[in-house]
Every structure is written in structure tokens, then in C-alpha cells.
Amino acid sequence: MGISRRDLIKVGITAGAALSIPSVPRAQTTLTDARTVHMVKASGLSTFDPVVTTYNITLDYALAIYDTLFSLDSKFMPQPQMVGKWGVSDDKKTYTFELRDGLNWHDGTPVTAADCVASIRRWGQVKPGGKLLMARASDISKKNEKTFTILLKEPLGLLPTLLTQYLYVMREKDADTPPTEAVTTNIGSGPFRFNQALAKPGSSFAYDRNEKYVPRSEPSDGLAGGKIVKVDRVIWDLIGDQQTALAALQVGEIDYVEVPPADFYPVIESDPNLALQVLDASGQVYFLRMNCLQKPFDNVKARQAVLHLVNQQAYLSVISHDTKYSSTVTSFFGDGNPVSNDENTGWYRKGGDPENAKRLLREAGYAGEKVVILQPTDWAEGSNASQVLAAELQKIGVNAELAAMDWGTLATRRTNKGPVNEGGWSIFITSESNSSRGDPIAAESLGASGETSWYGWPNSDEYEALRAKWSDVQTIEERKALARKMQQVAWDLAGTVFLGRVVTPIARRKTLTGLIGMPELVPMWNMEKA
Predict the structure, then answer these.
(1) pLDDT in tens, 212-222
(2) Please, which residues have CB within 8 angstroms of residue 109's CB and are 6 or more apart in sequence?
(3) pTM
(4) Adjacency order of strands within the sheet including 36-40
(5) Contact 185, 174 (CB under 8 A)
(6) One-character DSSP codes across 437-448
(7) 141 phi and psi angles, rounded to 5 deg
(8) How would you classify the pairing of strands 94-99 and 284-290?
(9) CA distance linking residue 171 with residue 309, whole number of Å
(10) Radius of gyration of the chain measured on its C-alpha atoms
(11) What is the DSSP secondary structure assignment for residue 353, as one 8-state letter?
């Protein structure tokens, strides 16, 4: 596997002393430091359109500059956000939504019902919840400047919840952009304005408080309630070297590091000016996806071999290094979610089961086909886990090799459905919010519709038939029963293989307070700097 990142930096952090690193250049600002927050995000921002990508960095950008029709509160219940009044007909097939007062775009023009209709239609072509809504809707149309209606072919009780699923309202002229083409304008109606003048792609992006934003009157609660901005500017500084980022945090040049390496936890905890804080208590599930369209993983037994092979403890040791922040996970629906269960989990063994994996490979007729693992070199946890995977596969006789690349290149290459000799791939590793796995409608990776499903393209008509029932199940007990049936099929299909769950705290200066803790997304309203 080579020398780990942990070994390379161990000497620099053993003593726990402040690191001596030159100052980090920052975006120029005339505002006082007390009203400006500097944040180092988990990755660089390269796409401004939350419809065409699932990157968390883009979703955080969208959360700042756009607004939403509904938002989830801290109990994950949908609450009106841009919507002021709404109602449903007696037959549950007609929903009417009226926008609240005070909604304006950053260019000064009012938000209209036509903007909302166009945004829903564009989102509905791409996102799982949107696709479900569009399949059930007979019409979505503007009634007047502030009111729109959704007419359904049949009742859909989940509709308000679906409207919380990454539906960011854009101007009609932006939302008319085909969903295959990224919107590049930065005009929203949200609590922050994108500062185009200070934008330095590859270096930093800045967001200014939208002084004309009218928040809701309710207290802030999760992603719902009043979005009150308590600082004048937020700057996202791109600092690729993690040790440099920590040094900048220690001397006060930045206020927040989104993903501090676990190696640095002791340094952070020993510094009286710094704190580790868990914002997403649900954590992230790390998993691998196999290309189900190409050899050898077009054979279900080859996929099952990988499922049996994986030693989750080994992966967690190179992803987290700190056992109090990590755990194994065996439910297809994540760990600790309402529908998590133990159905068909006999494949799990502490330390993995290489002998059973070998047997399944033989039964699959594996003939030495090359297995290409996409290795994201700019994501340390994913890179290290890829090396562990290659070593595990090689030990049981798989012709596995690593293809090193940055995450941007990986994200492009994983769209290739062809064989490895035509630029395709066999396996890649990624992660997603553990909590998102509790909702098979919203989570794209929980689909199994073949070439129309998420990267890897697993296919099971039986699973999809069960999944289609999810939106019509009324009680949690019925959902738990349905989830058990789905998990039985999902683990036999083995399109996804878990590597473990990790809770990752952010690192901040203690002068930065008021951060909102929700899965996946990091709102910038409510936080303040002493």
C-alpha cells in the first residue's frame, strides 16, 4: 500500500505544538475581521448548479444564495420556507402554494410563481424525489404572480417532503436551462449574495450578507425557520495542504476547517483556542460501487465476493484512525435510521471472509479480467481506502490495479459505462450521509434500475417494484417491513458494499459560534464571530 498520509505527518504533530507555517494569503476585504468568517471547505467549488451535481460543496453554495419552498427542521419534518400559505384539496390531488411576502431576487426583481414552476420542472427531470413528483403530477402551473398549483393523478402524501430534497428555486430564465447544462449565473433570493468581484476560482469565493433578505419570523430550527445572517461576509479559502490549513486555524487566519484529518485531532483538542464539533451526528457512510455492466462485476457472484471480502475495520483504520468516531454498518439503510434492520446480513464477518470470497469468485467464473479501481488522490480517505481495496482483491487472486486521478477526473470517468480498455472502470469508493440512506426515494444511490440508476448501474426489477411502494406506505411500521424486504434483495444484488461509518467533526476557533448541525449541508446563517 505504500506509506500512509498518517506516517508522513506523524513527526510534525507528535509534540502537539502549534505548527510553524507561513501566513495564508486571503481574499482582500475592507470589512473588519470580527464581521468576516474564513472557512476551509472539504473541496473546491467548481460547479454552481445544484441540479447537475450532487457535490456537497455545490449544495452548500446553493443553500447560501438560493431559497427553498420547504425546508427540514431539526426533527427532519418539512416546514414552509418561501411558501407562506398552502393547502390540499379534499381528494388530496390538488396542492395550492402561495409565496410569502418579501421575496426578491438579488437583482431586485420579485420572486414569482412562474420561477417556482420552472424550478420544479427542471429539478423534476433529474432528482429522484422530483422524478417521483413528475410521474404523479398531471399539471404544475402558475395561478397568479404569487400562487401556483400542483395537480396529481393520485394522492402523494410525501409531496411537502419531496419539495425539501435539494429543490433550490431559481429565476425562471435560469430554470429554463436544460438540466444537462449547468446554470452559471449566481443570482438567487437567499440570505447571501455571491460576491463576483472577489471570486478567485482555485483560491477563494466570497459571500456577502443579503441586506434585503426577509427571514421568516420563526426561530432557526435545522434548515427551517428564520435564516438570520449575523456576519457581513463569509470567505471560502481553498487550502489544499491540510497541515497548512491547521496552522492557519491556530493563528486565527481562518475560523473553520470542514474536514480536519483525524491525525490532527489531538493538536486541536489541546489548543485552548480551538474546538472539535460534530455537526452531522449521523455521519458519513463510506462505500464502494462496482460497474455492474462490465466484467467481472456483471456477474452477481463476483459482486457478492467483494461483499464477503471487505474487512470494514481495515478501511476504518485508514479513514478515521479514531474508534470513537467510527463504526461498522450492515444495514442497507444505514446505521441508526428508523428503517435500519438486520435482514440478510449473514455476509458480515469481523475481519471479512476471504475464503468465502474466493469461492464466490470461482463460481462466478472469474478468468483474470483486469479490475480498475479509480483512486482519488486529492481525497486522502478515499485514496487510502482504495489502496486497501486493491491489496485485499490481489490477495484473493483478482487482477486489480489502481488508476490514480483527482476527484474531478474520477467524477467524469465514472460516467463511462464501457469496459476498462475503453476508458471505463470497475470500482470506485465514495461516501454519503448516513441519514440519507433512510430515504430510498431521495437517495440516488439506493436505486437499482440498471442503466438509468446511479453510477454502477445495478439492476433488479424485484427491488425497484418494492421501492416504488415506498411513497404510498403510510406508517413507520409498514415502512420498516418494506425496508426488510428491500434489504433482502439489495444484499443479494450486492451493487453497493459498505466500508464503514465515520462521524467527522469540524474544527473551529472558539470565537465562531452558532453553527447549525444537520446531515450533509452546512448553513452559513445563524453563525457569529466574537
Answers:
(1) 999 999 999 99
(2) 171
(3) 0.79
(4) 192-200, 204-209, 233-237, 36-40, 256-257, 506-509, 274-277
(5) yes
(6) GG-TTT-GGG--
(7) -150, 160
(8) unpaired
(9) 49
(10) 24
(11) -
